[in-house]
Design goal:
The protein is mostly helical and about 325 residues long. Helices cover about 75% and strands about 0% of the residues. The longest helix has 27 residues.
């Protein structure tokens, strides 16, 4: 029954996402939702390394920037076809992620987080200062829209919305397969206890590095979609603010769940846009609301719901 309810819920969410462009004629809303979907893809990756493996990577936004700039540089400066550059965006992130992971994952706890925070800042500085490669503060201009696939083109806002939604659905499905597999259980064993994981015969370093590489691949592909949608890139995409927004989305939705980061990544941009009229004072409202949410729903919206359902199921079994 629970599995059936879960599939029904996912199907309903997908139906709502498909119908959204038909329910609004405002292209601005479509743009906001498209960007929210892109951030949701990246947040899924961050949730893999943080929520399921227990390693807080504060350079995740930097890897999204690497994916975006890889696509931008290859298409603008080297006239590479969009989809070839798109694939290479994920590949480059995985290669860089492997190198960073091998070095950084020897550290534990907050030492790892601080190290990755520094890595994220280094990525930002490289993008800003390496003008011959990244164009520096001038940025990359004229990034092409995603190339047509057969008769299907992606020149309109609505078409790009559905394209990003397609990749979000594929990303969520693959993430579900990963976390439900033996590999996903290995990630969770590492999260729960390094000593216990080693006792079970799990290679800690290999498992952590694999989780790190898979997570930054999501960031790289999200960055490539971002570049194709916005069509302009500047160093600001690599700022740590983006990573903290993803962390906030995980906390709001429910870290270590599949639906939680998706829900958080969709809610946070809309709340931010709603409070836009407050300009610099909007955090005076958003900040306390987030604090209250963490106090009263420490497991996030989805995590708290799942725990409540588990308690009800346990109580029903005791009553039998």
């Amino acid at each position: 029954m629970n599995a059936l309810q879960g599939k029904t819920g996912w199907a309903l969410l997908l139906a709502l996402a498909i119908a959204f462009p038909l329910l609004t004629t405002n292209s601005y809303y479509l743009t906001v939702m498209t960007l929210a979907f892109i951030y949701a893809i990246a947040t899924l990756g961050l949730n893999l390394i943080t929520g399921y493996t227990g390693q807080l990577n504060l350079a995740h936004g930097g890897f999204m920037a690497i994916g975006a700039y890889t696509l931008g540089i290859l298409t603008v400066d080297h006239q590479m076809p969009f989809w070839a550059a798109f694939v290479l965006s994920g590949v480059v992130c995985m290669i860089v992620g492997y190198v960073v992971g091998v070095v950084s994952l020897r550290l534990k706890g907050h030492y790892f987080s601080i190290f990755t925070l520094c890595i994220g800042y280094i990525i930002y500085l490289l993008i800003e200062k390496w003008e011959s490669l990244t164009h520096g503060t001038v940025g990359l201009i004229g990034i092409p829209v995603p190339a047509a696939i057969g008769p299907v083109t992606f020149d309109s806002v609505q078409a790009q919305y559905y394209l990003v939604l397609f990749f979000l659905v594929i990303g969520a499905f693959l993430m579900h397969r990963i976390v439900s597999s033996l590999l996903g259980r290995s990630f969770m064993a590492v999260r729960n206890s390094d000593a216990l994981a080693e006792a079970l015969g799990i290679d800690l370093m290999r498992t952590k590095v694999l989780s790190f590489v898979l997570s930054v691949a999501y960031a790289g592909f999200a960055g490539a979609l971002y570049a194709g949608h916005v069509r302009f890139l500047g160093p600001d995409i690599a700022r740590t603010d983006l990573t903290f927004d993803m962390v906030m989305a995980m906390l709001v939705g429910g870290i270590g769940t599949l639906l939680g980061p998706l829900l958080g990544a969709l809610l946070v941009p809309w709340v931010t846009q709603t409070l836009q009229f407050l300009q610099d004072y909007r955090m005076l409202v958003f900040g306390p609301v987030l604090i209250l949410l963490i106090i009263f729903l420490p497991d996030g919206i989805v995590g708290s719901y799942l725990k409540r359902q588990a308690r009800r199921a346990a109580a029903a079994r005791r009553g039998q």
